[in-house]
Write a structure and sequence with these properties.
503 residues; alpha+beta; 6-stranded antiparallel sheet; globular
Length: 503
């Protein structure tokens, strides 16, 4: 998440922006206005007992959480009582108080500091937020962040998703008969009961898990949380997907390591979970391929594809989620995504022979195009990536994609055209297209893609060191022709000798 520098009081915060105050020897920082219904006020550093207040400027009403203390375990005390384990499990499950504030379990900090989150949900607005330290003390540095990460539901017909994603479901490894059974049972996108998307997919997953078919269970739970973590049921499905995925790991055909990579986050760093897949007998003497999916299909969902790449090319594969999705904190931002890729590329160079390729699928293809055009990696593969035309002011969405994108961008409600118009410009890769700094690139998509215009593939046609394929009779990411996509990719990698041993 990008951090703004310290700004003057009274700044009107727009969605997706972050306001930061850092201070030493001061008592108070005040004055950011937040639109109604938004939230996420994060406090880092400082002392015990800081006061956080939220004032509804329109009505002059004020809500405060005063003098929170920590007990010996480092947990916040609320009204003199520790928050229950269920209220701060996993570090990001929220517990509401009567004022509408949400208290989050803090990370461990130095004895004289606390580090934690307070997410404020504002029913009316605008509001003014303030943070006050109880006393002055030099060498204290505290940061107050205001961001936006409150997922929402939106209107989407489940049958439309089955129509569009059917080939992705079966090509990723689920039996056709089981997919058809779930398809016939689902009648609602958001219900967590019979007929609901998450319920029916989770029931299938639980059946696989009971039989010890953990890989299939992970895939089914992946579809249960699809297309985004818009509610508790979806978040639970992701947790169960990870559980089943890790149970399946000993049976993978590739070596597997789940690790955390420290990547830039504003003025500091944050740990991003990644999965490192290696072919049998791998000794680090070949390149490493960075690989990610898009806004609704994440690293565990694409394990089968990434495993196939590792086995065929003999390269290590470092799989990750793009910002705003999966296990990568958001909101999605083009610059933050580029920073993430650069940090992961450094990690990947140390893991392999020093050469790094980047494979991006769907929105992940936006970021692989960015790294390839900027020369941040040694080669880039773009499958169905939005580049320029996809970010036009008048673009439209299909099959519920507007909700997946809106959630990844950090909105708490479906954004309108004006809000998106302010978000899109930094994603437009025209400035990089105008340069001649690209590394070898392979660009592939389906001619019938309803999400990404053909122009975002054809714009690479004729470019130096770039191969382009727009496949007929298939849609987004050419998902129904994935075997052909993989063969094109493997041939390209072999032709350029990217998988050859080199030290």
């Amino acid at each position: 998440m990008r951090h703004a520098d310290a700004a003057e009081d009274g700044h009107d915060l727009t969605r997706g922006e972050v306001q930061t105050w850092c201070w030493s020897d001061v008592e108070e920082a005040t004055g950011t206005q937040i639109a109604a219904g938004t939230g996420a006020v994060r406090v880092r550093g400082g002392e015990q007992g800081a006061d956080i207040s939220v004032e509804e400027a329109e009505h002059g009403q004020q809500r405060e959480d005063h003098g929170r203390e920590r007990d010996g375990s480092g947990d916040y005390l609320h009204d003199g009582e520790p928050l229950g384990a269920a209220e701060h499990a996993a570090g990001d499950h929220q517990a509401s108080d009567e004022h509408g504030a949400h208290l989050l379990h803090p990370d461990a900090g130095k004895p004289e500091e606390y580090r934690g989150d307070v997410s404020v949900v504002v029913p009316t607005g605008p509001v003014v937020c303030s943070l006050r330290h109880p006393k002055q003390k030099s060498c204290i540095s505290a940061v107050w962040e205001v961001g936006f990460r409150m997922p929402y539901r939106w209107k989407v017909a489940p049958e439309d998703l089955f129509v569009e994603r059917y080939w992705q479901m079966v090509n990723n490894g689920l039996p056709i008969a089981d997919v058809d059974t779930v398809r016939s049972a689902v009648t609602d996108m958001w219900l967590d009961e019979p007929g609901g998307w998450v319920y029916e997919w989770s029931r299938l997953a639980a059946g696989y898990a009971e039989l010890g078919q953990h890989h299939l269970a992970a895939l089914a739970y992946g579809w249960a949380k699809f297309p985004t973590l818009a509610d508790d049921a979806k978040r639970t499905a992701l947790e169960r997907q990870l559980e089943q995925y890790l149970l399946a790991a000993p049976g993978f055909e590739v070596g597997f390591e789940r690790r955390a990579v420290q990547v830039p986050c504003g003025e500091g760093v944050t740990a991003v979970p990644v999965h490192f897949l290696t072919p049998p007998g791998w000794s680090g003497d070949t390149p490493v391929l960075l690989a990610s999916g898009g806004v609704d299909t994440w690293k565990m969902d694409l394990h089968g594809l990434f495993e196939a790449v590792a086995l065929r090319t003999r390269m290590g594969v470092l799989a990750f989620d793009i910002p705003g999705t999966g296990e990568c904190a958001g909101p999605m931002d083009s610059e933050d995504g580029a920073d993430l890729v650069r940090a992961l590329a450094i990690e990947a160079r140390a893991l392999g022979n020093g050469r790094v390729l980047h494979l991006g699928i769907s929105m992940g293809g936006h970021f692989s195009a960015c790294s390839g055009l900027a020369g941040d990696v040694d080669a880039a593969i773009v499958i169905g990536g939005p580049i320029e035309a996809a970010f036009a002011q008048d673009r439209t969405f299909a099959y519920g994609m507007e909700g997946s994108v809106g959630n990844a961008l950090g909105f708490d409600h479906e954004p309108n055209d004006a809000q998106l118009a302010r978000i899109w410009p930094p994603f437009d890769l025209r400035p990089l297209l105008n340069l001649d700094a690209n590394v070898p690139m392979l660009v592939i998509n389906g001619a019938g893609d309803v999400h990404v215009p053909q122009q975002d593939t054809l714009v690479f046609d004729g470019r130096r060191d770039t191969e382009v394929h727009l496949l007929p009779d298939t849609g987004h990411c050419a998902a129904s022709k994935m075997p052909q996509v993989l063969e094109l990719m493997f041939e390209w990698i072999d032709r350029h000798q990217f998988s050859s041993v080199r030290r």
